[in-house]
Amino acid sequence: MAEDLELQSFDLECERNNQDHRTAETGCQQLIVRRGQPFTITLRFAGREYEEGVDHLTFSVETGPCPIETSGTRFPFPLSCSLEEATWSSAVDSQNGASLSVSITSPPDARIGRYRLTMEASTDHQGSSFHLGEFILLFNPWCPSDSVFLEREEERTEYVLTQHGQIFQGSKDYIYPTPWNFGQFEDGIVDICLQLLDNNPKFLRNQDKDCSRRNSPVYVSRVVSAMVNCNDDRGVLMGRWDNNYDDGVSPMAWNGSVDILQRWQQYGCQPVRYGQCWVFAAVACTVLRALGIPTRVVTNYSSAHDTNGNLIIEQYLDENGKLQQGNRELIWNYHCWVECWMSRPDLPAGYDGWQVLDPTPQEKSEGVYCCGPSPVKAIKQGDLKLKYDVRFVFAEVNADVAYLMLQSDMSRKKTVYSTVVGKNISTKSVGRDAKEDITHNYKYREDSEEEREVFAKAKHQKTYPPTEEGLKVKIKVSEGMNNGCDFDVFAVLNNNTDTERLCRLMFGARTASYNGTLGPECGSKDLLNVALKPYAERTVPLRILYEKYGTCLMQDNMIKVMALLTDYESKEMVLSERNIYVKNPDIKIRVLGEPAQKRKLVAELSLTNPLPSPLSGCVFTMEGAGLTAGQQIKELDCPIGPGEEAKVRVDFVPQQSGLRKLVADFESDKLKGVKGSRNVIIAPLPK
User: Fold this and answer.
1) Which has the closest alpha carbon to 671: 604, 620, 618, 633?
2) Angstrom distance (rounded) from CA 124 to CA 537
3) Across residues 446-471, what is the average pLDDT?
4) In whole angstroms, what is the distance from residue 512 CA to residue 501 CA?
5) CA–CA gap between residue 498 and residue 535 (Å, rounded)
6) For residue 421, how many other CB atoms are within 10 A of its CB?
7) DSSP letters spanning 355-397
8) What is the pLDDT of residue 315?
9) Is 49 helix (H, G, I), strand (E, B) or coil?
10) Which of 275, 513, 522, 674 could connect to 666 by a Cys-Cys bridge, CB 3.0–4.6 Å?
């Protein structure tokens, strides 16, 4: 009779397995593997060796607080001669005396999350049970049978492994990139993401059901969409858009997601203040990449917020052609969401691929502030009844804008524009910091036969204005619209008819937030007798003075310019608007030293004050995944006068090799949310 098999020690081989499963940048403190792919553990026995046919080893994996086999959250499986693809299984990899190497694989549709691994060893007469530790299981875009499988390696690298990126902001006429540190493999972030799942209301109501559904990226991504905002739950971020952020952090000041997620955990899962759309989207991108779902941040310019689902955004103008405050429906200068790559077995065939997920709390979906996953293909085809929230996203890129101007008899004259929403939909290019325009994924070419078919299916009528006849207004801008400077904008008026027209031009500028909220006026003209000769063009300038906009410029540095031309005789009304970005100075970043892993480097950050007054309370913040141990903050003691340079030096020791990105932010009393970045290639440690 064989004596009992006694386990002396075990090794989860974290370093080797994490390398094989592309999670090595999380370190080797815990085992983090991807589903549908084998990993190897080593067992060392005392007394005697493992004997096939005599010893029976059975492993068991459990996830969640109440693991049940019928829910897929508990699974026992024996040590066998070969691995199976569709289920939990194990097999002997190799044996060297009392040391046994065992391969374990999970099915490609396993529940993701934190697992406990145990082993029972038995001979013919009795057995013993051993706890082998814990591991984390993630989605696997490298596994062809996983529902998040992505075919191209360069896309998997970009959308799952890359820890830095660019988020596009500005306006459709001036698109600029903002660097962001996603940091999904930074210390503790994967654990925080699992903690986020365990704080969602569905888990708190029914832990077994929630954990059982974590095999589906559709379910998990929808939970993440709800949990990144705090409107219904113990979510990560509180949104605020009123320019008052003294009791928190301005949305413009964040450099990345790591600090936000760490604060949420440190505050006992209390919401972090404050976020706006790009912050919500970026944090969602970090969480989803950390969990293994391919994700990218997307920016939609001139994005409609349709509250009543009629695909029309109504904007009310007073008798002087100025937008009235209090419009609930707005055209956001831009709006950011994320796209996740996954199959959609819950929908008819044809809707796999990129799915819109929007964690910014705008409207409720099934009673909760979340949005998506909504198939991009369904948005393009006008399939508005599909889940989730296709109609809302369709409006964001396709809604009409109706301007209703108050008349002298208190009636309102209505003018509809059908081609102003959903412009230059942008995301970061694969492997490069450049912008990729993906508008064609969301909509067909304007006035094409395909577009007309989509709108007929969506029961949405669009009218396109004639291209040549009548009056035309266009707003042009000058070069050098830099913060601290005066500059000109121009209303270009065209009379494309054979008769002279006598018109009134109302031309004004107001500071604005990116979500369409208006601030004070910073320039205006009201010309009562503008004579336009037949087929003639006339240009009217408007001077925008720093002394007017400087004190009321909102954090987004946006100014909305509107020109309204009204023909006295025909009552024809033509409106043009343009959002212009007042450019901040650049942060210059120099890296001093030889960039190598575990070797001290110095970053020199500098910025020149462009304003005619001094800057006080100046602070530089710098971070970079694999480069800095969290955020590095440097405060300047003295004010920085006009034209003077603010400069600091920051020490850091890179922990990871390869292409990395330093991201910097500058804050002061008068200049906020100034960004800068620099790519750094870190040489690996010599082998």
Assistant:
1) 618
2) 98
3) 77
4) 32
5) 6
6) 24
7) EEE--S-SS-BTTBS----EEHHHHHHT-TTSTTTHHHHHHHH
8) 79
9) coil
10) 674
pLDDT-derived band of residue 516, with 50, 70 and 90 as boundaries? confident
Q: Does the pLDDT of residue 208 top 90, yes or no?
A: yes
The tokens of 449 are what? 């036969």
ω before 373 within 30° of 0 (cis)?
Answer: yes
Q: Is the pLDDT of residue 349 over 80?
A: yes
- Pick the range with the lowest mean pLDDT from 348-357, 385-394, 415-424: 415-424
Ordered DSSP codes for 107-118: -TTPPPEEEEEE
Q: Where are the domains of the chain?
A: 6-138, 153-457, 470-581, 588-682
| Of 193, 269, 277, 522, catalytic | 277
The verdict on whether 242 is a catalytic residue reads no
d(CA 115, CA 117): 6
For the question of residue 335 being annotated catalytic, the response is yes
Token match 């919500």: residue?
280
The second-level CATH assignment, the architecture, of 153-457 is Alpha-Beta Complex (3.90)
- Fill in the amino acid letter for 619: V
Out of 21, 164, 305, 335, which one is annotated catalytic? 335
Q: Which of 210, 259, 358, 556 is catalytic?
A: 358
Please say if 164 is a catalytic residue.
no
pLDDT single digits (tens) 622-644:
999 999 988 999 999 999 999 99
Distance CA 316, CA 72 (A): 55
To the nearest 10°, report the CA torsion of 88, 92, 93, 96: 150
Per residue in 564-617, pLDDT (tens digit) is 999 999 888 888 999 999 999 999 999 999 999 999 999 999 999 999 999 999
Examine domains 6-138 and 470-581 and report if their fold is the same: yes
pLDDT grade, residue 319 (50/70/90)?
confident
For the stretch 615-646, what's the b/e string if a residue is b when 16 or more beta carbons lie within 10 angstroms of its beta carbon? beebebbbbbbbbbeebbebebeebbeeeeeb
Beta bridge partners of 630: none
Hey, what CATH topology would domain 6-138 get? Immunoglobulin-like (2.60.40)
Average pLDDT over residues 534-553: 95
The answer to whether the beta carbons of residues 682 and 657 sit under 8 Å apart is: yes
CATH 3.40.640.10 fits 588-682, yes or no: no
Quick check: bond before 388 cis, omega within 30? yes
Q: Is 511 helix (H, G, I), strand (E, B) or coil?
A: strand
- Closest among 164, 123, 106 to 4, alpha carbons compared: 123
Quick check: pTM over 0.70? Answer: yes
- Rounded Cα distance between 610 and 606, Å, is 13
Angle, CA of 519, 403 and 457, to the nearest 5°: 120
Q: What is the DSSP letter of 218?
A: H
Tell me which architecture the domain covering 470-581 has in CATH. Sandwich (2.60)
Residue 499 and residue 483: Cα distance in Å, rounded?
42
Give the range among 227-236, 389-398, 417-426, 525-534 with minimum mean pLDDT.
417-426
Q: Backbone phi, then psi, for 458, in 5-degree steps?
A: -85, 0
